[in-house]
Amino acid sequence: MINVNETSSGALRRLLKATVAAGLVLAAFSGVANAASNCVKGDRKAPYTIGWANIYSVPTWMKQTEGTITAEVDELKKAGLVKDLMITDAQGNAQTQIQHIQSMIDANVDAIVVIAGSSNALDRVISDACDKGIAIVNFDSLVNTDKVTAKINTDSNEWGGEAAKWLVNQLGGKGKIIVMNGPAGISVSDDRRKGAQPVLDANKGIEIITETNTEYNVAPAQEAMTSLLFANQEIDGVLSLGGALSAGSVLAFDRQGREQVPITGENARQFLELWKEKGLKGWATMQPNWLGALSVYTAVQALEGKSVPAFIKVPLPVIDDSSIDSYLARADKFPADGYIYSDYDKALFDKLLAQ
């Protein structure tokens, strides 16, 4: 005897399973189609409103970076892709930056570009913005959370490691050095220092006699190094992990009548000019100011439905005696206290996004 109810029930269960499975597959494909990049969701259409949540605008590097952001926004406005740019300045206060990002969320901007004033304090508000469907592009100083559309940076660990290797080689693996760091708690500064440590650990002949943290500005760096010079009569090298820091160090040595020592640094115009003028033994690399422009471009690409990498690594150039003249040849295009950065264009940006 056949139980009709049991047979119908089994068939129904099989039908439901098939329907659910098909629905999941369709949902998966739908998700890919509607959200190629993380965070981006909702009915967002060009022209977009972009938020630039700046941690501080005083250092020249930041002013130049903001200049590349506004220039990129102007280009995207011409293309009909951007309507407005909202700019805030937290004046170095991470809590103020959190409030500014919250105001951007409340205004329902389409994208937020941010240099983090703290690697962890911003996590909650950044995650909230992502949940609201806002494209989040974080560059230079990075947050811990991965709830962003993209993070863009050079490799700060590599930055510190390569600088340390050069200095160790210059000193023949033996000597007393001073380490100059940027502000403590800023990820780009902390990561450069972490990257240098394995190299220093592997070369026991290198003695760190002291180290300091200062703003990325020449005046405070010069003041800090002046104090260290009074306290330390024997210094063989300076592991400087920032361009303005290096310029400040060179000026301090000069004004105290101390002999210059091998020094690392960055593409700060003043440092490169002092390097050439005084015949320094120097090495430098570059944190390109156009990371800001690339961040805006990346955010708009994501909003347009393109898939962008979760992390975009920008290669580090090397500035040494063989290449410094090519940078100085372009010096008059940049502020006296600014950074001589390399050229950039859409083709470069597309190449980096294709990683």
Automatic annotation (TrEMBL):
Gene3D superfamilies: 3.40.50.2300. Keywords: Signal. PANTHER family: D-ALLOSE-BINDING PERIPLASMIC PROTEIN-RELATED. GO terms for cellular component: cell envelope. It is found in: Cell envelope. Its main location: other. SUPFAM superfamilies: Periplasmic binding protein-like I. Residues 1-35 form the signal peptide. This is ABC transporter substrate-binding protein. Residues 51-306 form the Periplasmic binding protein domain. InterPro entries: Peripla_BP_I, SBP_2_dom. GO terms for molecular function: carbohydrate binding. Belongs to the bacterial solute-binding protein 2 family.
